[in-house]
Amino acid sequence: MDTGYHSANKIRNTYKNRLFALTFIFVITIMIYGGYLFRLQIVQGGEYKSRAQSVSRRIIPIQAQRGEIFDRNYNEPLVTNRDSFAVDIIPAELDSEKRETVAKKLSEVLTISAEDVLSKIPVNYSSYHQPVEIQGGVDFSKISYIAEHIEQFPGVTWHSKPVRQYHNIGSLSHAIGYVGSITSEELRVKYNEGYGFNSIIGKSGIEKQYDKILRGENGRRFLTVDAHGRSMDGEITEEIPPENGLNLTLTIDRDIQKLAEEALGERIGSAIVLKPATGEILAMVSYPWYDPNIFNSSNLIGNFSRLSLDSKYPFINRTIQSSYAPASVFKIVMSSAAYEEEAIPPDKTILCEGSLRVGNRVFNCHKKEGHGHVNLSHGLAESCDVYYYTLGLNYLGIDTIYRYTKNYGFGEYTGIDLPGEIKGQVPNPEWKKQNLNSQWVGGDTVNMSIGQGYLAVTPIQMANMIAMTVNGGEIYRPHLVKEMRNSITGGVEETIEPEILRSSNMRKETFEKVQEDMRGVVKNGTAEVAITTDAVDIAGKTGTGEVGYEDRWTAWFGANAPYGAPPEEQIVVVTMVEAENEWEWWAIRAANIIFQGIFADQTYDEAIEELDWGWLHNDRVTQ
Amino acid sequence: MTAKDNSLNGRQGSLLRFDLVTFLSMLALMCIGVLFIYSSNMTSSGESIKTKDYVYQIVWIVGALIAYFTIQLGEYDRYERFSYYLYIIVILLLVATLQWGRVINASRSWLGIFDLGIQPSEFMKLAFIMVLASFYQRRAARIKHISTFLIGILLLLFPVLLILLQPDLGTSLVFFPIFLAVSFVAGIKIRYVLFMFLSGFFLVLFTVLPVWESTIADRSFSVFAVFREKKLFLFTMGILVFAAVLGIVGYFTAKRKFFYWISYGFSVIWSAFGGAYIFRELLREYQIMRLIVFIKPEVDPQGSGWNIIQSLTAVGSGGLTGKGFLQGTQSHYQYLPESSTDFIFSIIAEELGFLGSFTVLVLFGIILVRGIYILLNARNSYGVLIGVGILTMIFFHMIVNIGMTVGLMPITGIPLMFLSYGGSSLWTAVIGMALLQNIYINRYTY
Dihedral (C-alpha) A23, A26, A28, A33: value to the nearest 10 degrees? Predict the structure, then answer.
């Protein structure tokens, strides 16, 4: 042994200093740790003791009932809840050895495959202490079976998850919307507002807009529990009761909604019925619509993607989320400007020969042979394009047109109580410079004068415009919720008061004259042949928008009735049929049916009978 | 030396020379371990979920003790000549583990047949200590030469890389303090050891700083763009390397020691800076996050912060005397994960209080200090060096594991030796102690 032949002393002397250095590190570190433990366990011990107490208390949320939704008559609910449960697994409490057995047992109870159960809890979740939902829509009998045999289901828990039921709401789906499980993105934004991992949240429409009111506030039950979620002391230590969500009464009248829905039929487009004196929306139809109950079905993802990919965009609420050229309905704005500015004597006539040349461009009137000599009232009644080209170009100018357009609320949000509203677009020279980097030319003014070109408006803005002429200058914020009621007593907790959105400083006479001219449109103008109802006197304006199709146009009709009555008694109807459909000049016909139905208190079938349009029976909505 | 010493030569007298202090301390720690593995498997209602764990642990302890005494049959010097073979065999086992190992907790560290398995990475620590000690002892004459140190690093790199591939960051980290301590005691120039220590320190610092800034710090530091933006990084790296090279040039032209240290300092920084950049490329942010979440566990209360919060609560709520054996609430309500392995100290501290946790510290302290005493009386440098390696291993496991349970150290998942549930770790610790005992028994054997 060549290496071992040292004396012990020599070894000791060689390594002594360095070994002492090592000892120093060992001893100092252990002393620091001892001191730290002393501080943690004795100095701060009490604080941790109370923390340990609170940790072993589990908080069990008591689900607040989501408010129901009614129409304005508050009789039959449109939306209710059905009792149901969701089964969860807390991955951290699921023994890795028992994973398979538990999944198999659970799959037998839930009648899904064991793979489906396991796929919800990936292996890397194994230290997760938040419950992961395995299946929703589980009924009470299955839950009670699991509860009675809980020892066979370690790590399995459940929570109440009522299913939202939508009762024959038909075309109200856009207004009402639907609910769904909260996504992680939504949770990140709303974490402080009392939402949790298992929260149900409104995804669109009223359900989204009024989510906080509908959901109420969950109660809490405090329990001391063991690892399996079993209560330790057997009794509830403390309980904070839930505060149920409020019921909502909509401004919608379900009969008028049904009427408007059937009057529009299977045509891509929309219809709005509005009370101008308050802003209450009586009907809001956007076709195509969808059935929100599909979001409760097990094939949620399939249904959702099918609808999302539908080229007709059934999820779009066309009344507030689509904008179109207003076409000739826009002439109401032009006439208002002409009267208010006294830009042209109302009796002065302009000769229409079927077209107007501006620079080297020729702008046609919709009547090729021309209207002859027309004045302002006739211009609106006959919707003479040449009259309005001239008015816009020579008498008003783009700045005035722009001012009056904005005055009517175009290019601004209406503030309707629905999410996702768009504000359309009102062009002017600055806008064109910024967005298209080109000069505003006379042709642009000409186009805008008849509501074409870059102008884009939503149907709800159109309804507001008519409302302003009816009210003589005011637009009330359009809204869908009338009141909020206590879900148990039914007592009204809050009423939504009408709120003025815009006030115009135009003279009352201007609006009266515009209304008079609109009456002329129906009485002896473009709408004369189509508005056949005798139930009420209507004032309105037609519109036919160019969109580039050979023989198809978007069709508008904006109207109010009874003509001349005080605003409180009036209603506004705006119908709009997209150019996607076969041309049948349907917007005005739909409005005709709606007015007939409302003022004669008739259903769609009775109304078309009365109008001698019985042939439409074959054209019934089949959806 | 004296006749008396010679008469006690050999095996016959070994029991008389047996060191009871380290043996009994070790035995006490293992008993505490069994008790609390039993406790950790209890639910609050008193029934046991995984009854067999503590039984297994007893079986492993018995086996380990048999190995402990069997090792005393030979003199430790005789084992020295096998150390290279042992090193190569365990390296091969590590390679085999990577190929056929079982994946548990996301790393492939188990090698086994049927239900029996070993973690070669645990035994690698012993093999590495033996081979490093043997190498340094044979190079005693050239110990201050840099080549000795570099070959030592080479011996270190094989196991570290193989274990990193599993991937098991925690276990591979254990090899560094062992290497540094053995090198330091063996007489490697302190400036080499210090260089490795410092660049390792800055490497970790530079790796975690950007994540610390984005997740924990209250405000952002514009300086940290150096770590994030590639151009800025390359620029800074260039300056650092240039400064280091300038130092070397200065040293050789001006022959001033001053330049040497300038170059030394910059080299520490640039190697750490570059290494940290590579680390951040290789590691995901959440992995780095796990390393620093202990600074402020509240930032991640559902993920890795959970364990720290629960463990701190368990330890803190223990108070002076604890909640009593089997009475801990944190562990029995199963708020503490991995309570029989990584977090066994938390249960001891919760159920026995400061008295219990301090006792554990003291028992480790006795082993370490008594261990140094044994080394001071060792017969040859091989004994001293393997002893240093073993004591450092036990020490490092202890401070990292206990530090983790009280929020002083990152969660690395390395076990508390003697106490944590698990055969491989236990056997490694006990065989290490057996070698230490062997050094003591044979202190007068020539």
Answer: -160
